[in-house]
């Protein structure tokens, strides 16, 4: 079957067909029938002009009028190309004017972020970054209504003061109504320029800073610390201790270490030359107790010092024997005749006897007065003070040679005075030491003599001990050999004797 054209359905000869005159004529006839003549067109135009075509609307098709307006409200006209362009340009311009550019710009009114966060300001320079609140001039207002959210914020203002005025506030969980005003309690935020210390001396919660395992030689900043296994620290019970550091500068630092498990502490100082050794120090109660014990020992005739260790003080307490305590006042020997040096056994006198077991003997001033001088010559008195045990063994405490020239023709009552200061026996008389000072004078001459005497091995300290004095007169040989008797006498008076 031959193919046909789409509109007039004219046959299209195939390549192997024979075209006849009749077929060609048939094609031309179809063309002639399908083509409109001018008369046909005129008839059609006349018919169209007589038709009633409605205006187009939103509900029906029809004819429309073109318009270039961009601000009209008609729904029966069609926009021209120009109107479409003008509307686009106006929209872009309005969009730019209604938003901030990426480079920034000025915005009036408050900025609300996700309904609750608000950034607002007033014309007087006050600025508020708030949660559920904003500034309306100088008035604080709630942004939203809520049953218990409340409001909080950071508020910056300037009222002419020299210091910074940055505050914070928090109303707590209270009910809020959008647009309602409120008065917050403002708390000033501390500024770094405020007069406050900025050096951290402990942890933020007040606990000591942990420095476990560190070297105390490197802990030089003022503060309170704690730690275990600290190098260059004193010995601590369980290894733990508190450390207090007071700093003057890098080369002058004071460190104190308190034992965590015992009532004791240690102290040392860093100086230009380095660290001093650790010293163990007592708490004040311990100091008071030690001072009291030292005072009690000394009051009982002992010799103690606060520098003594506790072990030494205990030993000194044990040495005190209360049952042997004795005190004598104004003991006088009576008149003792001074014999010349040629006498084999000079006269001596016992001043007092101390009971067995005495551990401390204290002598007050000892005065020697001479009287009844019946001769005129130069003489030298020899005065000896000594201890004597129950076996007669002596320990000489002193020997004083005093020289005086008596006035010619003197008959009697010439006073010669000699004073002996306190004699201390610092240890029990068991191979201990006897020490003291001797002050004596005659005429216008004063003398001070110090002595230190060792108790001999054969001196018996277990029995009673006598305090004795011996007086002897030495004169020039030519006098001594010619004078057979003297009437010179001495009186020995001891102000106080105490023994324990």
Detailed description of the structure:
There is one protein chain. With 500 residues, this protein is mainly β. The chain folds into five domains: 3-33, no CATH class; 111-188; 216-281, no CATH class; 284-319, no CATH class; 322-499, Jelly Rolls (Sandwich). 15% of the residues lie in helices and 37% in strands. The chain is built from six helices and 34 strands. Strands 14, 15, 16, 17, 18, 19 and 20 form a seven-stranded mixed sheet that branches. It has a six-stranded antiparallel sheet with strand order 5-6-7-10-11-13, with no helix packed on it. Strand 5 and strand 6 (117-121) form a beta hairpin. Helix 4 (284-299) packs parallel to helix 5 (310-319). The longest helix is centred in the first third of the chain and has 17 residues, at 81-97. The relative contact order is 0.08. It comes from Paenibacillus polysaccharolyticus. This is Phage tail fibre repeat-containing protein. InterPro entries: Phage_lambda_Stf-r2.
């Amino acid at each position: 079957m031959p193919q046909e054209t789409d509109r007039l359905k004219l046959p299209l000869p195939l390549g192997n067909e024979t075209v006849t005159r009749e077929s060609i004529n048939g094609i031309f006839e179809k063309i002639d029938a399908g083509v409109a003549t001018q008369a046909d067109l005129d008839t059609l135009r006349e018919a169209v002009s007589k038709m009633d075509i409605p205006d187009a609307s939103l509900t029906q098709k029809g004819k429309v009028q073109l318009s270039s307006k961009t601000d009209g409200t008609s729904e029966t006209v069609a926009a021209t190309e120009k109107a479409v362009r003008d509307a686009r340009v106006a929209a872009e311009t309005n969009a730019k004017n209604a938003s901030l550019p990426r480079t920034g710009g000025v915005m009036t009114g408050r900025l609300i972020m996700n309904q609750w966060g608000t950034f607002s300001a007033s014309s007087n320079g006050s600025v508020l970054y708030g949660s559920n609140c904003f500034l309306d001039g100088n008035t604080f207002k709630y942004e939203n209504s809520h049953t218990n959210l409340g409001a909080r914020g950071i508020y910056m203002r300037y009222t002419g003061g020299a210091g910074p005025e940055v505050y914070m506030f928090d109303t707590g969980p209270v009910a809020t109504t959008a647009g309602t005003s409120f008065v917050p309690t403002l708390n000033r935020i501390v500024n770094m320029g405020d007069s406050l210390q900025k050096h951290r001396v402990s942890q933020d919660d007040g606990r000591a800073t942990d420095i476990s395992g560190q070297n105390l030689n490197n802990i030089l900043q003022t503060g309170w610390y704690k730690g275990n296994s600290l190098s260059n620290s004193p010995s601590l019970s369980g290894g733990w201790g508190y450390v207090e550091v007071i700093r003057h500068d890098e080369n002058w630092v004071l460190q104190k270490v308190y034992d965590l498990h015992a009532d004791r502490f240690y102290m040392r100082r860093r100086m230009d030359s380095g660290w001093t050794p650790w010293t163990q120090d007592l708490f004040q109660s311990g100091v008071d107790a030690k001072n009291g014990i030292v005072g009690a020992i000394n009051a009982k005739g002992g010799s103690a010092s606060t520098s003594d260790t506790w072990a030494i003080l205990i030993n000194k307490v044990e040495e005190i024997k209360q049952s042997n305590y004795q005190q004598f006042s104004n003991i006088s020997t009576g008149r003792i005749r001074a014999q010349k040096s040629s006498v084999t056994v000079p006269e001596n006198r016992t001043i007092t006897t101390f009971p067995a077991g005495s551990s401390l003997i204290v002598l007050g001033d000892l005065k020697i007065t001479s009287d009844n001088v019946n001769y005129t010559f130069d003489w030298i008195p020899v005065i000896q003070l000594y201890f004597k045990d129950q076996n007669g063994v002596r320990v000489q405490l002193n020997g004083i040679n005093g020289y005086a020239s008596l006035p010619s023709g003197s008959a009697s009552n010439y006073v010669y005075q000699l004073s002996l200061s306190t004699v201390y026996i610092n240890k029990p008389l068991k191979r201990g030491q006897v020490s003291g000072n001797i002050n004596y004078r005659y005429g216008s001459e004063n003398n001070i003599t110090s002595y230190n005497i060792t108790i001999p091995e054969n001196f018996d300290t277990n029995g009673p001990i006598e305090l004795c004095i011996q007086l002897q007169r030495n004169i020039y040989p030519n006098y001594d050999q010619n004078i057979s008797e003297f009437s010179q006498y001495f009186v020995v008076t001891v102000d106080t004797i105490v023994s324990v």
